[in-house]
Design goal:
The chain is an alpha/beta fold. It is built from seven helices and seven strands, in the order βαβαβαβαβαβααβ. It is globular and about 45 Å long. The two termini are about 30 Å apart. Bound molecules: zinc ion (ZN). The site of zinc ion has 6 residues, from loops.
Length: about 210
């Protein structure tokens, strides 16, 4: 089975789906598409150097998690319009045709970051015979949503997820988020299903993007 993850920035795939990837990657083929190089943050450094750094970090993290390959799109500008970019949609649609994924993971529409919501709108445009699940990076709304959810027990691989996150050293300004928020959310999700750590996804059954 092939699983495809769509992420706005390098590290979103690890924060959102890292535990599930680590758990499933021994048996399943997992690919990630990252839309930007994440090079607008931090602002003080040279953009291209940051992009280079973050690409490197993503591949290190991918190795630990067992991701088969990452596709970088380089869509750093006008993220809020990417769902109208027919060329980009066709390009990704071709990747989907080649990989033939059974499951697609992408950002939730309730996420706090506009780039994340842009990827959600983009994903809604993609056609294919796959199940769709959304993940949240900056907000915990998925935990309280009444929509159908998928919980994945990541207790045995949680340390791998955290190790992969450690690779994103260029993001050290927001270390508190990595160190505290991620374990905290995983503990709450775990409590709901009676395990130590879990990741939660919302099944995306709505037909229309908004
Ligand atoms: Zn992001």
């Amino acid at each position: 089975m092939t699983i495809l993850v769509l992420a706005a920035h390098p590290d979103d795939e690890v924060i959102g789906v890292g535990g599930t990837i680590a758990k499933l990657s021994k048996k399943e083929d997992i690919y990630v598409i990252i839309f930007t190089f994440g090079s607008t943050f931090p602002y003080s450094e040279d953009k291209y150097r940051i992009a280079e750094k973050r690409i490197k970090e993503s591949f290190y993290a991918a190795k630990i998690l067992g991701i088969k390959d990452i596709y970088f799109i380089g869509a750093d500008f006008k993220m809020n319009r990417i769902h109208k970019d027919k060329f980009l949609i066709n390009r990704i649609q071709k990747v989907i045709k080649d990989l033939n994924p059974r499951v697609l993971f992408y950002h939730s529409l309730t996420d706090g970051h506009p780039d994340h919501r842009a990827v959600h709108r983009f994903a809604k445009r993609l056609k294919g015979d796959f199940e769709r699940y959304t993940f949240e990076v900056t907000s915990p709304f998925d935990l309280i949503s009444s929509r159908p959810k998928l919980y994945v027990d990541i207790t045995n691989v949680f340390h791998i997820k955290m190790k992969a996150i450690e690779y994103f050293i260029s993001q050290k300004q927001i270390t508190w988020f990595f160190r505290y928020y991620i374990p905290f959310k995983a503990r709450i999700a775990g409590k709901i299903i009676g395990t130590k750590y879990a990741e939660v996804f919302i099944k995306d059954e709505s037909r229309f993007w908004s």
